[in-house]
C-alpha cells in the first residue's frame, strides 16, 4: 500500500487543507500549558470525531516533542491525532496532537524471552483508551505519513499500534534481537521525555529551581510525585537508573541561556548499538553516538570529579 509522506514546511499547509478549519497558532507560556488552560492535557479516543486527523510521525519527530507524555502506542508506533492547531511557546511552534496511552510490552520480560519470540501487547485500543497531550516541534520534526480522517470504528478494527513482529522468520533473519534493542531504546527515549516533563512541573512548583541532581535517588524522590511511575526512572532493558548531571544542582531555569544545549539527564551506560540517550533542559531528547558521545562522557566524568572534590 502506498503511503503519503509529508515533509515540512508543507506540514501545516497539508493539515489545514484537510481540516474543516485552518490551523491557528496561539502564543502561550509553559505554566499555562501545564495547567491545561490552553488545550486539554487528556482526552479519550471516543472524544475524537471527523474533524480530527490520524497521522503517523516518521524519522526523528519523537525527539522533538516538548510536552509529550509517555508512550502510548507501543514501541514501534508513532500514531498521533490532531486537528491542526498550533501553539507557540517562546520561540518554538508546536503542533497540538494526542497519543494513545496504552500499556506496551514488558521489556524486561521481552529480553528474558530471547529473540525467537516477542510478547504481544498487553492492552488493546478501546473507545475509552486515554490520549495524552503531545506537542510536536515543527522545527525539528521529520515527516508525516498517512494523514487521513479519523474514524473510531476503523481505528478499533485496525488496532496495530503496538505490534512488534512475532514471527519465526524474523528470528531466522536475525532481526528480532535488533527489534528488541530498538524497542528498549525507544521506550528509554520516552522515559526521558516524561522525566523532562516532571522536571518542568517540579520547577514550576519550586520557583523555577531544578530538582535535586546530586544522584539518581535524590532526583527520583523529587520528581516521582509528578511522574507517578517508578519504571520511568530506569532504562527498560537493564533497570539501570538514569544519570543526572550533578553540575546543575541548585540552579534555576533562568540560569541557562541555552537550555536546548544543556544536558540534565542521561542513560547510565551505552545501549547495545553504542549510543546513549540524553535529556536536554528544554525537554527534547537526543541519542548521542560517535565523537559527540565521547565528548559528552568525558565532560560528565570531569563534572562528577568536580562534585566529589567539592564534597570533601
Keywords:
single chain; alpha+beta; 8 helices; 312 residues; four-stranded antiparallel beta sheet; disordered N terminus; eight-stranded mixed beta sheet
What does this structure look like?
The chain has 312 residues and is an alpha+beta fold. It folds into two domains: 5-166, no CATH class; 175-311, no CATH class. 31% of the residues lie in helices and 21% in strands. It contains eight helices and twelve strands. The chain has helices at residues 10-18, 30-34, 107-113, 152-157, 168-172, 176-205, 216-227, 290-311, and strands at 5-7, 25-28, 42-44, 53-58, 79-89, 92-100, 130-137, 143-149, 243-244, 263-266, 276-280, 285-288. The strands form two sheets. Strands 1, 2, 3, 4, 5, 6, 7 and 8 form an eight-stranded mixed beta sheet that branches. The chain has a four-stranded antiparallel beta sheet with strand order 9-10-11-12. A hairpin with a 4-residue loop joins strand 11 (276-280) and strand 12 (285-288). Helix 6 (176-205) packs across helix 7 (216-227). The longest helix is centred in the middle third of the chain and has 30 residues, at 176-205. The N and C termini lie far apart (64 Å). 37% of the residues are buried. Mean pLDDT is 73; it is low at 1-23, 59-77, 105-122 and 160-179.
Major pleated sheet: 8 strands, mixed
In N-to-C order, the SSE pattern is EHEHEEEEHEEHHHHEEEEH
Shape annotation: globular
Measured as a percent range, the helix fraction is 25-40%
| Quaternary state of the chains | single chain
Amino acid at each position: 500500500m502506498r503511503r503519503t509522506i509529508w515533509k515540512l514546511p508543507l506540514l501545516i499547509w497539508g493539515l489545514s487543507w484537510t481540516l474543516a478549519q485552518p490551523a491557528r497558532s496561539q502564543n502561550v507560556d509553559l505554566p499555562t500549558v501545564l495547567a491545561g488552560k490552553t488545550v486539554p492535557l487528556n482526552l479519550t479516543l471516543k472524544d475524537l470525531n471527523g474533524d480530527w486527523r490520524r497521522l503517523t510521525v516518521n524519522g526523528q519527530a519523537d525527539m522533538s516533542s516538548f510536552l509529550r507524555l509517555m508512550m502510548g502506542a507501543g514501541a514501534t508506533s508513532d500514531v498521533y491525532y490532531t486537528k491542526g492547531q498550533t501553539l507557540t511557546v517562546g520561540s518554538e511552534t508546536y503542533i497540538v496532537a494526542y497519543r494513545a496511552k496504552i500499556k506496551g510490552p514488558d521489556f524486561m520480560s521481552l529480553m528474558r524471552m530471547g529473540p525467537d519470540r516477542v510478547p504481544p501487547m498487553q492492552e488493546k485500543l478501546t473507545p475509552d483508551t486515554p490520549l495524552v497531550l503531545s506537542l510536536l516541534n515543527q522545527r525539528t520534526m521529520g515527516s508525516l505519513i498517512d494523514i487521513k480522517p479519523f474514524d473510531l470504528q476503523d481505528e478499533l478494527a485496525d488496532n496495530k499500534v503496538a505490534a512488534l513482529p512475532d514471527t519465526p522468520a524474523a528470528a531466522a533473519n536475525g532481526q528480532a534481537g535488533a527489534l528488541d534493542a530498538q524497542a528498549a531504546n525507544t521506550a528509554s527515549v520516552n522515559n526521558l521525555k516524561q522525566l523532562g516533563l516532571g522536571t518542568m512541573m517540579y520547577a514550576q512548583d519550586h520557583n523555577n529551581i531544578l530538582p535535586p541532581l546530586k544522584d539518581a535517588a535524590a532526583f527520583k524522590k523529587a520528581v516521582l510525585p509528578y511522574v507517578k511511575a517508578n519504571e520511568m526512572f530506569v532504562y527498560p532493558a537493564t533497570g539501570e537508573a538514569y544519570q543526572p548531571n550533578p553540575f546543575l544542582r541548585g540552579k534555576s531555569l533562568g540560569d541557562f541561556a541555552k537550555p536546548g544545549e544543556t544536558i540534565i539527564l542521561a542513560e547510565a551506560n551505552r545501549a547495545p548499538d553504542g549510543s546513549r540517550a540524553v535529556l536536554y533542559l528544554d525537554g527534547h531528547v537526543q541519542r548521542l553516538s560517535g565523537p559527540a558521545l565521547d565528548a559528552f562522557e568525558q565532560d560528565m566524568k570531569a563534572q562528577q570529579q568536580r562534585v566529589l572534590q567539592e564534597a570533601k
